[in-house]
Structures are given as C-alpha cells and as structure tokens.
Input
Amino acid sequence: MTKLDYSLLRRINHTHLLLKMCLLALTIPFLISIAGNLVFAKDRENANASYEIGLWGDLPYSAAQEAGVTRLIDDMNSQKLAFTVHDGDLKAGSNSLCDNALYAKAKSYFDALEAPAAFTPGDNDWTDCDRASNGGFNSLERLDYERQIFFSTPFSLGKRRLLQEVQTTPLCLGVNGEVPCVENRRWTVGRVTYATLNIQGSCNNLCDTAPNENEYLARNAANIAWLKETFKVAKERNSAAVMLISQAEPGWDLSDGTRSPLRDPKTLVETDQQPDGFKDFLLALRDEVIAFRKPVAYVHGDSHYFRIDKPFLDSQGRRLENFTRVETFGDNQANGTNDVQWVKVTVDPSSREVFSYQPQIVPGNRVAVPAP
Output
C-alpha cells in the first residue's frame, strides 16, 4: 500500500468514525426521549390506576369490641388495600383511663395492619382525658404524648409505611407552649391527595370539663392553614380529587340535632346555643371546595352512624355537588360488635366521581343477623 493509499484510508476511517459519532449523538437523545416518554406514559398510567383504601374509627370502646377490632384488622388484611385511616377515638369517652397503656394497645392495632395505617386523634383520646372518670389527666399532656407515640416520624404506622408530609410549623399548643401540629398529615397516592386534620368533637375543646380556648384558637388556625395548603398542593399536582379525614362531626345543617350540632346551612353559624368550634373552618372548607371544583370527600367519625351523603350547601342554599360526607362506623356498646365494621373506598382517578364506597360487614362481628 502506498503512502497515498494509506493516507486516504485513514481519512476514510476518520470520516466514518465521525459519522458514527454524529449518528450516535443524534440517536442517544432520541432514545432517551423515547424512554422518557415511555416512563412518563407508564407513570401516567399508574397514576390513573384504581386502588382501594380502608376507613374506620371510634373503636374499640369495650373488651368485646377489642376482640371485634382484631377480626376487623384481619378482614382488612385479607384485602389488598393501599392504606387505611382511623379517624380517631381509641376508647370510650368516659369511665376508661387515658393511661399510657391505651396508646400502646392502639399502636399495636395499627402496626398489625399490613397496609400503611394513618391516624388522626379523637376527643376521647385527649380533650376528654381531663374527665375524672378518665383519670383526670392534663389533656394537652395527653395530646403531646400521642404526638410522641404516633407521630414521631414522617411515616405512617402499619407493617408497610407510607411517607407523609407533616405540618411542622409550631402553630399548635402543647403543655409547654407552641409546638408543631405533627398529627396533621398529607400524602398523595395516584392522582388523589389525602390529608388529616386534628378537629375534635366535644365542641372542638370549647366545652366539656376543662375547655381551652387558647388551644382551640391555635389549632383551628393551624387546621385552616393546612386545609388551604392541601388544596394548593392538590392543584399543583393536578390531583383528580381530595379526601380529608378528621374526628369531629361539625354539623352541616338543621336536620339532626341528635347526632351533630345544628347549623344554619347558608351562614354556617351554629344555632343550638353551644360553643361553636367549627364555623370558621367550615367557611374556609366551603370556599376551597367550590374553588377546587373536582370531587372532595370529608371523612369523620364522632356520632357513630355510618352514612354517606351531601349535606354541604353554599351561601345561597344550593348543594355542593362535588362534596361528599362519609361517616365511618363506630361504637355501639349496647350491642357489642354490632358496628365494629369498616368502609372500603375504591379510588379511580380516571372516573368522574373518583370515589365509590362499600361498607364492609365483618362476618365475625355480626350481632343481630348472624353470618350465613
């Protein structure tokens, strides 16, 4: 081979190498782009996939119900749930101690659940602990203790853990002053955003044995801030729906004073002469529900009466079509495990209403009509 031939061959090989490199440079971003689109499409598909969650609360109130709760947990564990939420009240409101053993037992229930287990406190857990029949505890000290036992990390309870966003700003009150409201949590699964809020029965700590207005005012402001931030986050994430979980039945209208506070549905002012610990929160909630426009579910316990309805009206008396109230089953001490049941929610972000509900009657907890 002559010098000329060798030089020409080198130039040809060099040109070929440059062409290959250019082609590769063009191809790699293209492949990355395809892969990225495939991943995005897969994520989007997963985000729209349906799943199921479990809701329960106001349990257990007696030894019989403790056995019933064990069966309820077994029933939940037999189904593939994305997570569960207990909406507060770990025991009866009176004649039951708020000692440390109470919270340890409750945590053992939550940690027995296969799925991540979220929890929001109930009035029987802390605001009512100052009753003499409950041991005459300092209610703020008991709430501080709950925060330590159930909310010391940013993860849920349960055998599988779920990372949650936490309200870390010190807006609430503890026994020694301002503390973070670490019990207020938020998480998103698929395209649905969930949040818990520490809203209590017993007038939201404005009545009963030792009401504490300062504690209420601080926590109420924190709850309203968490509510507004939750809807802001849901909009930023393009969530298909929002579900809020708290303990208290705040009262929505004038229909049933035996189960909830009576309230003018247009003004949301309580009309039964009781201290109103809910009006300002409900006004903020109504504004957010209307502005969000997509489905909003509000889950609570408190009056121990399973129901799903649409009791929320706007200031003109028109029903908020995108709002649904869900009250979980709860204590029925006179009939033992009669209402030791739970609610299964199917969440389908691609559907119009997103949430569909099915009561789960645990066979071993049936009382009036035995299981077939």
About this structure: The first helix runs from residue 3 to 47. The chain has two domains: 1-37, 53-365. The CA atoms of residues 212 and 335 lie 34 Å apart. The first strand starts at residue 51 and ends at 56.
